Amino acid sequence: MSDTAPQHQPDVIKRGGGAPATRGRTTIADGVVEKIAGLAARDVLGVHAMGSGISRTFGAVRDRVPGGTKSVTRGVKAEVGEVQTALDLEIVVDYGVSIADVARDVRENVISAVERMTGLEVVEVNIAVSDVKLPEEQDDEVLESRLQ
Question: What are phi and psi of 54, to 5 degrees?
Fold first, then answer.
């Protein structure tokens, strides 16, 4: 026998079709992204509340129902795709702060938190400032509790 004859290699059986990280899909619900974004937005100095006056009033009533919890998604709407997400936020800012600075900080904080936690690319964060909290105004929740 010659040394140049091809040697037979045993067949290697591959299982699973690739690296474990590539097997299957991960989907993230809109509500998950909304919670992350809502918490990240509330962490920004100058954000007094989330949502419009009406949604905050309904939320205050809902929060008082036994077993109810504060809605961290109030004022947040997300559209989630397979690899990207877009967000709409409605905020109330404290009087005296720079709305442009607060909006920039909210946008940066939300994008950072959502991308870090979900791996989704945040393509846009639209911010609507629906109100300014004046120093002499009472919070809706405080007013609601006094009415009861």
Answer: -65, -45
At 6-34, the pLDDT tens digits run: 666 666 666 666 788 788 888 999 999 99
φ, ψ of residue 7 to 5 degrees: the values are: -95, 145
Instruction: Report how far residue 31's alpha carbon sits from residue 77's, in angstroms, rounded to the nearest whole number.
Output: 8
Q: What sign does the dihedral 113-132-61-147 (CA atoms) show? A: positive
Phi, psi of 44, deg, nearest 5? -85, 130
Q: How far is CA 96 from the centre of its chain?
A: 26
Q: Could you tell me how many helices (H) and strands (E) the chain has, helices first?
A: 4, 4
pTM of the model: 0.73
Contact 105, 45 (CB under 8 A): yes
Q: Is the separation of the CB atoms in 44 and 110 below 8 Å?
A: no
Residue whose entry in the numeric block shows the structure tokens 């911010």: 127
